[in-house]
Amino acid sequence: MGSGEPQDVLGAHDPSFDVQLFGLATAVYAERDGKVLMLKRASGAMSGQWFLPGGALDRDELPEVGARRELVEESGLDIIGELELVGAYPLWVYGGDALMLSYRGQVSDGEVVLSHEHTGDRWVDPVDQRNELSDQLIDALSAGDPRVGDLVRHIRTDLDRYLRRIGRR
């Protein structure tokens, strides 16, 4: 770098370098009494479906910080102690590629306070949730859209990873 010329340390755009560049999102297995919190999406991607709390990270936000923020914004609940990384999977959402990082952690006591993004909440046994995710259900949910099928299969794989982590599978 000693030439006095400014260097592009991040690299210029090279159209021959064709890889996916992901947005980043998080999901949280918010745990309480052996169950995890699921929220029903009000609108946007997958409206009407039940998902873990989570969402997109803000620019330059650390994933753990974003996971905690999303959980508080969507449910009013805080994580007690540390978050533990469970896994990662790709998804197509809002017209682009994203990478979902999933975490787990115990949540504080208190009632769920939903944001405008959700219409319902429920605490589910993760084993029961996994047992519901059959190939037949995934095919029905995807209705021929391979991106939806891929997403739900990735969620099922992540749930399997979570269950192994907590010793229930």
Structural commentary:
With about 170 residues, this protein is α+β, with helices and mostly antiparallel strands. The protein has a domain at about 25-125: Nucleoside Triphosphate Pyrophosphohydrolase. The protein contains four helices and seven strands. Strands 1, 2, 3, 4, 5, 6 and 7 form a seven-stranded mixed sheet that branches. The termini are far apart. The model has no long low-confidence stretch (mean pLDDT about 90).
Condensed summary:
Helix content is 28%, strand content 30%.
**Whole-angstrom Rg:** 18 Å
Tell me the CATH superfamily of the domain at 23-124. Answer: Nucleoside Triphosphate Pyrophosphohydrolase
Poorly predicted tracts of residues: none
Q: Give the count of helical stretches.
A: 4
Largest sheet: 7 strands, mixed
- Strand segment tally: 7
CATH architecture of the domain at 23-124: Alpha-Beta Complex
Averaged pLDDT, please?
A: 90
Overall 3D shape: globular
Strand content: 25-35%
Q: Mind telling me the CATH class of the domain at 23-124?
A: Alpha Beta
Fill in the keyword field for this structure.
seven-stranded mixed beta sheet, 7 strands, 28% helix, 169 residues, globular, alpha+beta, 30% strand, Nucleoside Triphosphate Pyrophosphohydrolase, single chain
